[in-house]
Amino acid sequence: MTRLFNDPDDFAAEMTTGLAAASARWLRAVPGGVVRSTEADGPTVSLVVGGGSGHYPAFAGLVGPGLAHGAAMGNLFASPSTQQIHSVAAAADRGRGVLMSYGNYAGDVLNFDAAQARLRDAGVDCRTVVVTDDVSSAADPALRRGIAGDLCVFKVAGAACEAGHDLDGVERVARLANERTRSLGVAFDGCTLPGAGSPLFTVPDGRMAVGLGIHGEPGIDETDVPTAAGLAELLVRGLLAERPAGAGDRVVPILNGLGSVKYEELYVVYGAVHRLLGEAGLTVVDPEVGEFCTSFDMAGASLTLLWLDDAPGELERLWTAPCDTPAFRRGAVAGHHGTTAAPQDTAAGAPAAVLEGSPGSRACGARVAAAFDAVAAVLDAEADRLGRLDRVAGDGDHGIGMQRGGRAAREAAADAAARGAGAGTVLRHAADAWGDRAGGTSGAIWAALLDALGTALGDTGTPDTAAVAAAVRAAERAVAAAGGAAVGDKTMVDALVPFATVLDERVGAGEDLPVAWADAADAAGRAAEDTARLTARLGRARAHGERSVGTPDPGAVSFALVVRTAGEHLC
Amino acid sequence: MTRLFNDPDDFAAEMTTGLAAASARWLRAVPGGVVRSTEADGPTVSLVVGGGSGHYPAFAGLVGPGLAHGAAMGNLFASPSTQQIHSVAAAADRGRGVLMSYGNYAGDVLNFDAAQARLRDAGVDCRTVVVTDDVSSAADPALRRGIAGDLCVFKVAGAACEAGHDLDGVERVARLANERTRSLGVAFDGCTLPGAGSPLFTVPDGRMAVGLGIHGEPGIDETDVPTAAGLAELLVRGLLAERPAGAGDRVVPILNGLGSVKYEELYVVYGAVHRLLGEAGLTVVDPEVGEFCTSFDMAGASLTLLWLDDAPGELERLWTAPCDTPAFRRGAVAGHHGTTAAPQDTAAGAPAAVLEGSPGSRACGARVAAAFDAVAAVLDAEADRLGRLDRVAGDGDHGIGMQRGGRAAREAAADAAARGAGAGTVLRHAADAWGDRAGGTSGAIWAALLDALGTALGDTGTPDTAAVAAAVRAAERAVAAAGGAAVGDKTMVDALVPFATVLDERVGAGEDLPVAWADAADAAGRAAEDTARLTARLGRARAHGERSVGTPDPGAVSFALVVRTAGEHLC
């Protein structure tokens, strides 16, 4: 379990402060993460990596000459927000373009894509290579999650930047590295996030979950804990069955500990891995044994194979090229010098200016702020339940993400309202704060929803019933555009669409807003119950060993909670 | 807990095999441990480090250019044997002398000193600098244990070797580094050795042991788990109070995780450490945060300060000099190339030749072998109990060490007897095997005891009662010479001396050997009960928070067990 923290809410920020203090030779903090504290002799393409925190050395431990130029650091196990990624990428850009690379998780894709769009709008050439090395996470290679194989893709891309490749060239080798990288992991026990009352997940004593994700995402099998040799066989056999097209007979094995499976155990396993790879006719190149992608003190390990060509070639040259970062170093990197840029504070800086609203809109803004206050209290109370629901199908961070988002929105809304903002500005400030502090998929979606509501309502006049219904419709469209989910996918959209539809109907039929809103909230609640029931069924099926294809998230449940609570204060 | 292993008895050897396969760029296996697989352009002084396994990257992970030349790798948490250390040092020596450096533990001192004596006998100039950084382990700096501060002493000494210093020069800076290195550690929970039924030690839930050793040696205080900032304050305050004489205002902080306190937590703590050092007017140089001396998955952390001079000087230059090892790298080391030396096997090689004994001595040798068979069975059965006794005062490895020693001696004795050896050779082969496989303090002492017995009895004639009593007296003298303990120190000597005395008396009074031996064994048993009672009292006192000055070991208990069992088969 994680024992050392101050206020759990400050953990990620304090971790970044400590990392920057300890690693000033390599990096400095910027809003949203870290960038190199060194400068190359000439500008190169910039590699920006990132993801949730809690996986050190992924991602910030891999920033330095020959590897990444910056890392966007989300909250614990939560995607960095769009703002965070944009801030890091903008600080890392040297005018030759940015390659973004990260593990394939919905929240990361959403936020990195949005940041990429912003960079492109500003004229920065930006590409993305998503890492998909975890063979157990999906049959289709394109849908797989990214785990310890991140390192292979980052290292090859970083070396290509260092070698002076243009953005096309860096993107090409990064994509090739991802196609040639395969990982398989196992876990013996879960981890507990700072301040959490219970582990994020557990594995029964004496058992081993095969293919369990680095946030506890369900695996594909459960067995008794094997011997070290038995585990080596399972991992090597599983990966040899997934040999990528075009791969030669030279491989880089990376045996990774997730946190509390330690070096001596890993070396015992590695001895057998090395022998088995040799017996399979493969030549082992430059192996790595250690901790490259952890999950706090999760008890688990993974094996990654980076498949090279038959003769030492481009990938091998890039993999073995020098690099110098806090957590991964090899050889000597020439042509870099420290920079004197003053370390930037990680705080968000001065508050955004507020344009004062009309008297009616200001009154409405105050009611919106009161609604956020109530919503934050409800999300505080329900965070544990939402986390448990999320654990059945996902990584268990939904409760804590909604809680963080709600608290941040409450503060931002209260501040804006106190400074005379209208309803639109209160909502848009709340949207930014929610997205920035919650991170993850739900953070990005809620930010889009609130921002669209605020834009629709504006800061002048008192919004009437029809204006509210229209604003909700606009929010519905914004969520659909951001998330890509449809009704029936068992996400927040399953509750949002009936809510907007019923609200529209009742308002169209002449109902007052309080009645119309209550009816709409009831419809959202019924939809949420459906997804909750499906989630419970999924949990039981998993407990019986079934591998379900459905992965409902608790977004509908939390959405219904929020609209019911907000309605009591808005209307 | 440690989950991944095959046969626990093979763990250390298999770990070395895996390490050598994964780290061939830096090192290769030799009997007893590992040495560099690279060769410097010109010969330098060789730095040989070592200790028990289970602390990776200490010690084998620190072998490579700019750091150590070889590491003697003992069994888990047990000192390497004299033979192991000698083998590694002989392989590492390049004709300019050997500096040995290791943490201050009784077993390591005993075995490294014996290996040093052998090297000096063979004309190799050899010096020793024992690391004593753990401020909580004793008030007298010379008596303190060595923990994560090992790295500071090794790094400075290795850099001095690399810089071409002669042995005097390397010894001088290593001694200076040790005088300037102070560490303080805490633990939240223990670790379980491969295949063990229970943890080596535990810390109550929600509590923190202050100053607990890396093998679970008792600490100086127990508190509730503090906040990260609270821990930083405790560690910094404790170390500032121990500022060494002659230290300047520049310090290197090393925040070390013991195994399952992970990087994110360490960085949160480090942020506060960094701030507190600055507030104390100190300049932080080149900090390190990570895992440098672990204890499997023990939950704990330690802070080390290496105190430099006021202006950047010799120590700082040596600390920051380049090095390249599996687990610790910085900068680029010039002037080294890989060697083509065939990897040596870690097996002990061909069996030693046996000189056939006289018929009477051969019969006696067969009885000795039968006695070892019975002793090994008893030690198997009692290993857990001996381990528990040892855990009160020491590191809990006595049971497993005696078990390993007994098994190895049984095999060696049976083999020698089958090949026609006399009693003396059977005992001396058993002595070598016991010392080599058991490691630790008790391994070295039992090897000395059995070797002296064998030398005294010889391989000709049937030893009579008087010869046996005289041989036991010789063994008693050998143990006193090797261990330096006296009666009353609550060690094995407390049982050995009454055993030898009573045996002498009874034999002198004309008793037959069976009766005399049984009386002597009874005397040893009574002495052992006294130390066991003291140990139990110590355990209760510690449980009530007392810090006892006595540290009885279970050597008397196991000695009494062995002589009682052996007597039934010898006489």
From TrEMBL, chains A, B:
Residue ranges that the Swiss-Prot or TrEMBL entry lists as coiled coil: none
What GO CC annotations are associated with the protein? cytosol
Q: Respond yes or no to whether keyword Glycosyltransferase is given for this record.
A: no
Keyword annotations for this protein, in alphabetical order, are: ATP-binding, Kinase, Nucleotide-binding, Transferase
UniProt-listed Enzyme Commission number(s): 2.7.1.29
Domain named DhaL: residues = 366-568
Q: Name one GO biological process term.
A: glycerol catabolic process
Q: Where are the transmembrane segments?
A: none
Name of the molecule in the record: Dihydroxyacetone kinase
